[in-house]
Design goal:
about 240 residues; alpha+beta; six-stranded antiparallel β-sheet; six-stranded mixed β-sheet; about 20% helix
Amino acid sequence: DLELHLQRCQQLSVTVLTDHQDLSNTELKTITNSTAPQQYRIRAKLRTYKPQKLHQSVKLHCSKCNSLQEVPDGDDFDFILYGSANTAPNPELHNTSWYESVTWTTQDQKQREIAIHFVKHDEMLQHPEDTLLMIEGGTLKEIWKLTKRFKCVIPVRSTEDDLELLDLSAPFLLQGNVKYYGCKQCSNPKPMKSLSSIAAEQQPSWEPTEIAQVLGIELLQYVFIMKFTLVDETGALNAYLFDY
């Protein structure tokens, strides 16, 4: 457990980084006065690390504009879904050549209209574990139920002409227990009919990168980031960990 390990490191008087065994120890002052890139072996104490809670280390990164953002929480997604449910599914967009639609009205007080569009391959529905579906008017709980059974779920809403993605603050795709997000700045979302090109492939794999590409989405990647402040008798050094 990294968090526990870091706490232990703070309690020790000295932490030794064991990489580059062939190098002698270099003082931090020398490193801060040197030009990068260089390889060093240091003997230093861990003064602080950020963030304090390990789950806060996970961010979303856009490789195109190099931006970093927080991973939205479930409440944000729920709010966007709630807003999109106010737009009733457009029946003229149901049962096209490349997807089959099922609709119903919920029995609760709100009586929401829900539409699920199952993407077809060779005019046939695929097995659930190979199926991509689009849902209108669903709640977060309902969407998670669908992700347990079907390969990919895309939350959408109706326009006059086509189905479209929700606000990019919401995940544009859910696969298993993973939510995939797009960069608001670099994405240029296309209507859902763009997916029909993948459905027409010989064996649609429904890979997130391919789905993002045809939908004009710049895919954000989950990254792990931490900042460590290391000290010795000569000075302090900030070290950053950044990994996919």
